[in-house]
Task: inverse folding
């Protein structure tokens, strides 16, 4: 038994899937959920994802030995502020946010004496769906979870969080926080911006109806991430603003160069870029 | 029986799938293939996609009543130049290129008296795979095929090409050529540029290895089209250059505005764009 009482604040796709995986592995005695939407919380109980819930964080974290903050990044600070005064002295706290610098800053400001037992984490898993209804216990299997411990992080807390994620079938990797935010800006945050920006642009075009009518499979795959939760992505943009703006500017320059090459029918430049991209992309297996 | 002798020039994913679908429907007596890669042509015979082949276009189009040009856009002009002097007088000619303005110009320059029996066409189907090995008879089922007839197009030729595609299970739509090139620049050509440009940029970053290691499912879907045939896409860029450059410039401006909104933490602008994109994207079913 890893935990006696696991508290999941935010029982959505990630929080719900984590609870399911840990229950399946018989890793905790009791799972307490916390959230704002009663229908989602009732559904979570009905599905057996959590044992019970409270809409009050103060109530929910009572006697918890592990607290998982699975809330949007913009809500992280206020959640920490609320729970800090009432957290048990030995409780371990972790989160699942897609940006880690901002979360560690929040922890520094608001978690007080619990700071060293806070382990910032980010499971590289998910989909454009959300809510406990979309949760599955296999979500993290063979996926990577990045932890970004600091020199102040309690070793035992770090090991507990690592063990928790390994129990879900994930591979856990430690990473420097700045490095995490750079890599994620490149592989996740920038692509989401491109997909949102493209679909928004096309939706504003006069030929909107035909555009969507004649879109093929490639377009569907390419724009799938534009169906992701706008509120969540708004928060990610602001939480990882600096790295994301750097990445957007670099991409703007790259696109400008490609546009120029096409304008000038510069076959060599076009071919080099396309071949290089294809070679890199083919290294993935689908 | 639609055709006595169907000649497919370019027995790849599209040409091969068309041949398969027409054979399955018993729509032609004989299918003659033409191409440059002997291994691909032999494979096509072995798979029963074509009856026989020639590597010489002049030989291949002999006595054909339907000729399908399924060659890269950059090769279209030279293919027309080669076959024009030897095409049977009543042969119908069509193509499957992703840009239509350039192909109609090629036809005007090189097809001479056969020009009115040339029907420009574009099946909105395919994948990032290529070669006859990837061909399947169901590729066009419930997909759209756009034809861009001109005032000079022979009515019977148009009807024959329409019937051919309907036989494969596709829905055939007529469209103005300029309109086709605009809509396709938006829904297909621009997204491919974004995917190629992104993967090329990331592949040049110092953290390249980690970037691809920590990429999640969303990134895979988003960049799948960057595995498309670089040569084919080089040709599409140049064939639809004007529309594509317009679209790239509009997107550059859109991206600039989003970057500015993120830089300024302009929540309202960010939220509006994301919600609008999600709403438009959700209209698709996956």
Result:
């Amino acid at each position: 038994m890893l935990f006696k009482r696991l508290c999941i604040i935010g029982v959505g796709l990630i929080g719900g899937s984590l609870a399911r995986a840990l229950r399946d592995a018989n890793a905790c005695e009791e799972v307490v959920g916390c959230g704002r939407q009663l229908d989602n919380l009732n559904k979570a109980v009905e599905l057996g994802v959590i044992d019970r819930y409270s809409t009050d964080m103060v109530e929910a974290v009572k006697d918890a030995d592990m607290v998982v903050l699975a809330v949007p990044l913009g809500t992280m600070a206020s959640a920490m502020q609320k729970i800090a005064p009432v957290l048990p002295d030995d409780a371990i706290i972790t989160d699942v946010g897609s940006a880690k610098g901002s979360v560690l800053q929040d922890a520094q400001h608001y978690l007080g004496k619990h700071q060293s037992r806070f382990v910032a984490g980010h499971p590289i898993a998910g989909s454009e769906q959300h809510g406990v209804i979309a949760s599955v216990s296999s979500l993290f299997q063979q996926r990577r979870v990045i932890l970004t411990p600091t020199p102040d992080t309690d070793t035992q807390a770090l090991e507990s969080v690592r063990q928790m994620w390994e129990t879900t079938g994930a591979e856990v990797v430690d990473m420097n926080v700045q490095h995490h935010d750079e890599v994620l800006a490149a592989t996740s945050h920038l692509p989401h911006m491109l997909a949102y920006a493209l679909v928004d642009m096309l939706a504003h075009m006069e030929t909107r109806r035909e555009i969507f009518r004649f879109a093929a499979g490639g377009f569907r795959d390419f724009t799938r991430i534009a169906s992701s939760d706008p509120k969540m992505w708004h928060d990610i943009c602001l939480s990882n603003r600096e790295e994301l703006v750097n990445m957007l500017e670099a991409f703007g320059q790259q696109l400008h160069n490609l546009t120029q090459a096409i304008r000038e029918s510069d076959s060599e430049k076009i071919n080099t870029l396309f071949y290089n991209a294809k070679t890199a992309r083919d290294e993935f297996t689908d």
